[in-house]
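Researcher: Structure prediction, please.
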Amino acid sequence: MDILSVFVIAVGLAMDAFAVSISCGFTVPSPKRWNALKIAAFFGAFQAVMPVIGWSIGRFFSIYIETFDHWIAFILLSFIGIRMIYNAIMADECETVVDPTDIKTLLMLSIATSIDALAVGVTFAFLQIRIITPVLIIGIITFFISSIGLLIGHKLGCYFEKRVEIFGGLVLIGIGLKILIEHLFF
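Model: Predicted structure follows.
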């Protein structure tokens, strides 16, 4: 597999993280760059680690991973999205309702947005691709794309108050549904 193909795969994998990053940017508790770096680092790291995990177990368990990876992503993203919507409805004006820098939330988001990367790792195993270069490219691209998404989301944040929180929750649920539908019907 050539570098251009790996780059295109990396950008494709990063799109879910980008959309979730925009949603996280809506609710990030402070405009500090540290928060953006923390979230982007988690997303980039998980996008890099999941293909390694998939690659490692791909020869043995690919049939089992393919049967439920989309359900895991759907459940995690829907849970977080529903929680965001509920908390937005119950919160006071312009109050942060979900802290995406919270480790528990960040771990769930990172896992949910990188499930597809796990499946790509399984594919890499079948194609007998050396994993180091693709993993580095995937992680770095996801980090940068997520950083941009967080900054875009944060700029829009408080201007739209609760509607943005609800929209962010709907985006997460939508991404989960997209992953589920793609795996069930295509």
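Model: The chain has a mean pLDDT of 81.
Researcher: Thanks, that helps.
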